[in-house]
Design goal:
Elements (H helix, E strand, L loop, with lengths): L10 H24 L9 H13 L2 E2 H8 L3 H13 L3 E5 L7 E5 L1 H22 L4 H34 L6
Helix pairs in contact: 1-5, 3-4
Length: 171
Amino acid sequence: MTSATGATPDAKELAAEIIEALAAARGAAAASGYRNLVGRAVSMTHMHVLATLRARGPMRMSELAEALDVSVANVTGIVSRMEERALVERLRDERDRRVVIAALSDEGRRVFEEMDRRTHDFFEGVLSHLSVDEMTQLRNGMRAVFREAKRAAARKRTEQARDEKKGRPNE
């Protein structure tokens, strides 16, 4: 493989090309999955809330506001609009009824299932145009990326635990 200059690319150049290709593929897949959800009045902000709740589970409104980097008043309005569209539901903490918890509703879960299906279909279509050799190389490369991503996450958790023991805030 050669770069635009004709020379063999170094590791940094290859990494930049791979990151660019992954971002482009992810963006195309997301656009494909998101396209028909717009008609259902699901905004990007709503998708961010849904993704956060899907990843972390039900959250106090204050925790959700912090995760989204918005005020509690702002997240309250967002959740209200999403509740009107049946994407989320508000629950009360059984230990402290004053605490409001936001959770995915069945419809919110269906939105993600539809996005997942559309993303799967998109990539299945893309991959159908690759040769078996290209798919084998891609699979092996993705396995290596996933392996290193798991190691990087483990290192980050170890660093955070060490910093917490030393009393330093996480970055």
